[in-house]
Amino acid sequence: MSIFSDSDYTREYHAHKKKVHSVAWNSNGQRLASGSTDKTARVWALDDHRKGKDIELKGHTDSVDQLCWDPTHPDQLATASADKTVRVWDARSGKCSHKVDTSGENINISWSPDGKQIAVGNKNDVLTVIETRKMKKAQEKTFPYEVNEFAWDPSGKYFCLAQGERNAGYVEVLNASDFSPFRKQLAHTASCYCIEFAPNGRYLTLGGADAIVTLWDTSELIAVKAFDSMLHAVRALSFNHDSTLLAVASEDPFVDIVDVGAGEIVHRLETGYAMNTIAFHPSENLLAHAGDDKDKDDYDMGSVKVFGFTRDNR
Fold first, then answer.
1. What gap in Å lies between CA 239 and CA 204, rounded to an integer?
2. How far is CA 169 from the centre of its chain?
3. How far is CA 240 from each of CA 61, 131, 200, 243, rounded to the nearest angstrom?
4. Are 18 and 60 in contact (CB under 8 A)?
5. Within a domain: residue 37?
6. Quick check: 163 and 143 in contact, CB under 8 A?
7. What is the rounded average pLDDT of the residues 277-281?
8. Considering its fold, how many domains does the chain have in total?
9. CB within 8 Å of 211: residues ≥ 6 apart
10. Is 195 inside any structural domain?
11. Exposed, middle or buried: residue 268 (CB in 10 Å: 0-12, 13-18, 19+)?
12. What pLDDT digit, counting tens, does each position of 213-240 carry?
């Protein structure tokens, strides 16, 4: 029996005119943000998970490809756009409080655990670090290979990149204090596309173009498990709040939820279309997700869905 057998209801939210590329919960789980190719972001206030009220964040002139929340401030959101800017928003008012110009079309963004830095990556494999106190660029680092997603470890000591070079996938660990190289490890047989730390800091997981997900023990950076249920390139990963479950999404029309300890799939969420983004709620087993869903006329739906509600709380 699936652990979601009594909580398998999905709630759907419509607002975007084109496909959604990124979803993320704020630190207290009261707001869910989504970013879309329609050049906007949305913030959904889910009151008791029963009503979805959204605020539109307008200002970008190109696709909003990824977004992230300030871990120390539940009302502050950052968006990375192909328009070569990063914007920081007040989620209560929907107003942009800061705009930072960057050197390229931004595709990835991550906020440091202490809230003091924002890292943004662009299509030219340039990493820009923004100091949030002054909202100014602190440094730029250009890599001679493909850099995809990146993430700080929960302690804030290390900064890790999922990358690809020479027909293989690597994880590179940098010292977060100055972004100097610390360690580099061969991880996959093709480019690593996504990376995620478990909230408890014990595990790091990587997803690659080889359709494989690997689970790494962070104490020694050793791969301890591999999951191969996907048929296509892995696009997104998300641990749940207590690090016991890992959601895996790809170009396949489903999301697999894996028991981290047992290494077994405990639920397969059938979506019917390729997935772009997933995010577990910070304190409940609710999974936000979005992908390439179309209506009957083959137009983008632009919807965000949240799975894991009980039928009584739908």
1. 10
2. 19
3. 33, 29, 10, 5
4. no
5. yes
6. yes
7. 98
8. 1
9. 228, 230, 231, 232, 233, 234, 250
10. yes
11. middle
12. 999 999 999 999 999 999 999 999 999 9
Task: Report the CATH number at residue 202.
Answer: 2.130.10.10
**pLDDT reported for residue 1:** 47
The label of the residue with tokens 């502050």 reads 76
Tell me the β-bridge partners of 165.
168
For residue 47, what pLDDT is reported? 64
The sign one gets for the Cα dihedral 19, 46, 288, 191 is: positive
> How much helix, strand and coil, in percent to the nearest 5, is found in the chain?
0, 60, 40
Establish if 300 belongs to a structural domain. yes
Does residue 314 register a pLDDT over 60? no
Q: Sheet containing 192-197: which strands, arranged edge to edge?
A: 192-197, 203-208, 213-217, 222-227
List, for residues 22-67, the tens digit of each pLDDT value: 999 999 999 999 999 999 999 998 764 455 568 999 999 999 999 9
User: Looking up tokens 């299509």, which residue turns up?
Assistant: 123
**Average pLDDT across the chain, whole number:** 93
Q: Please work out, in degrees rounded to the nearest 5, the angle formed at the alpha carbon of residue 93 by the alpha carbons of 89 and 94.
A: 45
Find where tokens 């137009």 sit. Answer: 299
Q: Closest Cα to residue 230, out of 275, 297, 294?
A: 275
User: The whole model's pTM is what?
Assistant: 0.94
What is residue 51's predicted lDDT score, i.e. its pLDDT? 54
Amino acid at 292: D
Q: pLDDT by residue (tens digit) across 162-193?
A: 999 988 999 999 999 999 999 999 999 999 99
* 1 within domain boundaries: no
Tokens of 137: 């660029």
Q: How far apart are CA 121 and CA 140, in angstroms?
A: 10
Its domain, for residue 161, covers 9-313
311 backbone dihedrals φ, ψ, rounded to 5°: -65, -30
